[in-house]
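[Q] Does anyone have a clean C-alpha cell version of this?
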Amino acid sequence: MSIDNKLKELGITLKSPPSPVANYIPVQQTGNLIYLSGQGPRNENGEFITGKVGSDITAEEAYDLARNTAINLLSAMNAYLGSLDRVSKIVKVLGMVNAVQDFTDHPKVINGCSDLFVEVFGEKGKHARSAVGMGSLPNNMAVEIEIIVEIE
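[A] Here you go.
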C-alpha cells in the first residue's frame, strides 16, 4: 500500500508546510539522509498550539499534540521529497516537551509522534529516540520535534 493510501486510511490530510519562523531551512539533505528542523503543533489556522504540559495541558492532550506535530513533519517531508514513498526509514526522533519542572512523562507525550510514524510506515517507522523536558520552547509551543530520515 502506498503511503498516500495509508494516510487516507488513517484520515490524515497533509498540508503545505509553513515558512520557517527564523533563519533556517526546514529540511537539509546530506547523502541519503534528511534532517528536518523542529516542528510544533498547529491549529486549523496554522497558529502554534501553546502552553506548558503539566499545568496548561495534560499528558494525554500533549500526546495528541505530538501526533499533530508528526503530521506537520510528514507534510514537510512530503513537500521536500514529492512522495513519502521515498522514505526508507525514520532513523531518529528528538522530542522536546515544554513542561513544568516536576513533569516526568515526556516519553508518553512523544509516543504521539512515534506511534503515528509506526502506523504510517510500519517497520520503517520504528526509530531511535530521545524525549526531553524543556523549561520553554519557541513561541511557547507545547511540543517541538525534529527528526532524521533515511530516503531512497
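[Q] Thanks! Anything notable?
[A] Strands lie at 27-30, 33-39, 87-98, 128-134, 143-151.
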